[in-house]
Amino acid sequence: MDTKNCFHCGLTIEVKEEIVFDEKSFCCNGCKTVYEIFSTNGLSCYYDFENAPGATPQDIKGKYDFLDNEGIAGKLLDFKEEDTHIVTLYIPHIHCSSCIWILENLNQLQEGVNSSQVNFSQKKVRIVFNPNQITLKTIVHVLSSIGYEPYISLENYEGKKADINRELTYKLGVAFFCFGNVMLLSFPEYFDVDEFWLDKYKGFFRWLIFGLSLPSFLYAASGYYVSAWKSIRSRMLNIDVPIALGLIVMFIRSTVDIVFGYGQGFFDSLTGLVFFMLLGRLFQQKTYNFLSFERDFKSYFPIAVTKITADKQEISCPVYDVVAGDRLLIRNQELIPVDGILISEETAIDYSFVTGEAIPISKKSGDRIFAGGRQTGRVIEMEVVSSVSQSYLTQLWSNDVFTKKDNRSYKTLTDTISRYFTPAILALAVATFLYWIFINVSTAFTVFTAVLIVACPCALALSAPFTLGNVLRIMGKRKLYLKNATVIEQMAKIDTLVFDKTGTITTNKKSLIVFEGASISSEETAAIKNLLRGSNHPLSRRLYDFLPVQDIISVNDFQEITGQGIQGSVGDYFIKIGSAHFVGQDLAPSFQTNVHIAINGNYKGKYVFNNQYREGLAALFETLSKTYKLKILSGDNEGERDALTKLLPEGTELVFNQKPEDKLAFIENLQQQGSNVMMIGDGLNDAGALAQSNVGISIPENVNVFSPACDGILDAGQFSQLSYFLNYSKKAVKTIKMSFALSLLYNAVGLSFAIAGKLSPLAAAILMPLSTITIVSFVTVTSNYYAEKCKKTV
Amino acid sequence: MSVIYLLISISIVVAVGFFFAFVKAVKSGQYDDDYTPSVRMLFDDELKKSKTKTKIK
Fold first, then answer.
1. Cβ pair A385, A351 in contact under 8 A
2. Domain boundary at A152, A182, A214, which?
3. Residues B26, A166: C-beta atoms closer than 8 Å
4. Closest by Cβ to A45, choosing from B26, B40, B46
5. Does the beta-carbon distance from A41 to B54 stay under 8 Å?
6. Does B20 touch chain A (CB under 8 A)?
7. Are A685 and A583 part of one and the same domain?
8. Contacts of residue B27 in chain A, CB cutoff 8 Å?
9. Which one is predicted more confidently, A475 or A313?
10. Element (H, E) at A498
11. Per the CB < 8 Å rule, is B33 touching A120?
12. How many domains does chain A contain in total?
């Protein structure tokens, strides 16, 4: 069959549903409408930058009514004045140059929008508009109508506009400015010939250099002094101690040198050092702006809900104002923000992002419903039992792990080395000083300072940032996004892997449906499919999608009995689909989810919904089990124990019936036994365990939205690559160790100059950049080499 | 030969001028987003003059 792709969104078009407009094919009316909007407004260049860049607009009727509430809308604005309002919206769909173009031309589409600017890496658009002509709600509606629906959550409501920290950029600028100019002015003295003009202006040049190096020494390097001081006070010698010491000694010695006219000093090396080290920091500070690793429930929850007042009025009210006893209206696909009791007759609630369980749960009037579920039926009414902060799900966040995490300090490889390095350097400096003092007192001081200067572990301090920064980028390209560089070192130390079951090793996207029972003829299948067409129950929908495409036959006497099943006549068949009881069977309750079928009163069998395991799961566990202890935690019952034991290698521990708190405790318990635990999970119910574990990785199907606080986000499609990432992190640490050896070698060479009393500023000026360049190129080449090599072995 | 003092002073003044330009650029947020502008600059005046501006709902 010849497949066509939608001109707007790129999806494959089903032949029957193709819509041709303006000689282009579209998959649905939504896409066609967006095209129409663009072409009538002269914006059809949207399609020139990228093929099929669009998204199908979603139905948003009533979803943003809360923006009419001025109090809520006001909280979202960045800036507010009489006729200028500015708002920044997060739009997950931003992904290509077409997106930038269309969003920045929003003023062509909508009057009242003055200008708009996209920040691509953060997936945000900043819109300046005139509130007299247009409201925020209209803007959101316009954006949604062209497929760029913004994502507004409770987090926006609370969030204070975070100050962007630009300190490093300033420091780097200052350091580079000083470095460049100092280098330029130092140049003449490198060729130390007794030349008349050189001699005459020596003093002037030197003092100029001194002045230029001050900002670098005092401002750009200030972070190192602060960090060194902190580490001395906490009695943990980190790498910044010898760096700060080296810098200070270098500055004092150089100042003394020029004051007394001994020489030009080491200002060139000093400023160069500061610049290179800051560069390393910048390189390590790779962040994925569009991802957030600190999410809690606030980024999932809606800002406002529809409240039904005593006189039956529907009003929007901020979630925080909801109190016990209120009545709320929850529409299809809306999130339930608080615990409550269902008042409407029935509904199905999808708890997939609380529990990871994909199949919605049916609820009847009077049942308790919990915060975090997504309503999948018709509009419901519910009565609130507890306020937002007291709901079952949100209480998980009051657990200590979420506040303690930041204080837990992790000792990096560099810190470990510097614990030995610093005392060794000090001892060596003192020893050489004592040796020289018997020979020549002035040389003794020169040598003492030279040792401290040359030992300044700049190359050592650079190896880790550059290796980890590079590894971070390579992993990011392969869709594992880590919070920061330290996570890589921690990953290398992991010895136990704990997996969540539902949603992590199984996928929510599709479930495997198998039929158990007597065989069903193709006519019967056709009849079943046609009967299912009329039902909106989630299981019906899934079974409907699973069954092969059939011709449409009309259904008579269709009846849906809530909580039981559906029935109806199709042609000659009278079919009942539903629970065992409904089809007249008394079977022992089963752990599995299944749908029973009876045709003309005869029981035919059942469709069993099995969880579909992720691709490559068995192979991945096989590889991992060689090096790691594997454990699986599940919130579900033991229904799948047999299937899992068969699939997974021996020795994999399976634990079932785990509540969120149990998972957290389980991880804590493992850590107390001395294990380094990596938790891999997805839902909010894993949030506690993810925060407690040494490395918490979350696996969302879509990386842009919905992942609990964690150390890393792995694209679900890359799940089978997990062992590659673990392996690679080990190699990264190996690379760092090798480059440590290399930089120590440089230090040894430099020290041998220094101890002999022969360290000239020129030698220092050559040695320092040389070591830096070697280290940086070494780690870059090695980490790239390992990235390729690990790929081959997996 | 005191011209060298003059020359160096001028060069320092120019350098400091550039430095302040840099600080101002950082402050205005130019360094916050280093990707979008690189795409934006490739857009030409693609907008066709649309005479009939149809407003959308």
1. no
2. A152
3. yes
4. B46
5. yes
6. no
7. no
8. 166
9. A475
10. strand A496-500
11. yes
12. 6
Query: What does the alpha-carbon distance between residue A59 and residue A418 come to, in Å, rounded to a whole number?
Result: 59
Of A570, A592, A595, nearest to A583 (Cα)?
A595
Amino acid occupying residue A459:
A
User: Nearest CA to B36 among A164, A117, A128, A148?
Assistant: A117
Q: Is residue B48 part of a domain?
A: no
> DSSP H helical segments within A478-514, as ranges?
486-493
Least confident of A28-42, A308-322, A529-543, A579-593: A579-593
Determine, yes or no, domain membership for A260: yes
**For residue A517, what pLDDT is reported?**
78
Local confidence band at A391 (pLDDT 50, 70, 90 cut-offs): confident
A126 & A226 share domain: no
- The residue among B23, B38, B46, B50 with the most chain A CBs within 10 A of its CB, best to mutate, is B46
Does A518 lie in the same domain as A600? yes
Residue A354 lies in a domain: yes
pLDDT of residue B1: 60
Asked if the model's pLDDT at residue A79 lies above 90, the reply is: no
CA pair distance A350, A356, nearest whole angstrom: 9
Strand ranges in chain B using DSSP code E only, listed in sequence order: none
Based on the fold, state whether residues A72 and A144 are members of the same structural domain.
yes
B35/chain A closest Cα distance in angstroms:
7
On average, the pLDDT of chain A sits at: 80
Residue A621 in domain? no
- A84 and A122 inside one domain: yes
Q: In sequence order, which residues have a C-beta less than 8 Å from that of residue A766 and are 6 or more positions away?
A: none
| Per-residue pLDDT band at A653 (split at 50, 70, 90) | confident
Residue A167: how many CA atoms within 13 Å on its side-chain side? Answer: 9
- Cα distances from A387 to residues A77, A301, A778, B42, in angstroms, run 26, 13, 57, 51
Phi then psi for residue A515, to 5 deg, are: -100, 130
Given pLDDT bands bounded at 50, 70 and 90, which one contains residue A211?
Answer: very high
Q: Classify strands A380-384 and A327-330 as parallel, antiparallel or unpaired.
A: antiparallel
Q: Is there a single domain that holds both residue A515 and residue A567?
A: yes
Q: Are residues A101 and A181 in the same domain?
A: no
Q: Give the pLDDT confidence score for residue B46 in this predicted structure.
A: 60
**Does residue A594 sit within a domain?**
yes
CA distance A394 to A724: 35
Q: How many CB atoms lie within 10 A of CB A413?
A: 20
Spatial CA neighbour of A526 closest among A544, A546, A550: A550
Mean pLDDT throughout A619-625?
86
Q: Where residue A27 sits, what CATH number does that domain have?
A: 2.30.170
Indicate the SS3 state at residue A374: strand
Interface probe with B: pick from A119, A126, A144, A165, most Cβ of B within 10 Å: A119
Name the residue in chain A with its Cα closest to that of B25.
A170
Which residue(s) pair with A284 in the sheet?
none
What is the ipTM, given to two decimal places? Answer: 0.81
Backbone φ, ψ for residue A600 (5° rounding): 50, 40
Is there a domain that residue B12 lies in? yes
- CA pair distance A128, A490, nearest whole angstrom: 44
Structure tokens at A60: 């948003």
Domain boundary among A722, A755, A783: A722
Tell whether B56 is covered by a domain: no
Q: Is residue B29 part of a domain?
A: yes
Q: B23 lies in which domain range?
A: 3-38
Please give the residue range of the domain that contains residue A22.
4-49
Express each pLDDT in A545-562 by its tens digit: 777 777 777 777 887 776
**How many structural domains does chain B have?**
1
Beta-sheet strand order (sheet of A712-714): A480-482, A712-714, A695-698, A677-681, A496-500, A629-633, A653-655
- pLDDT of B51 over the 50 cut: no
pLDDT of A418 reads: 78
Can you give the CATH number for the domain in which A323 is found? 2.70.150.10
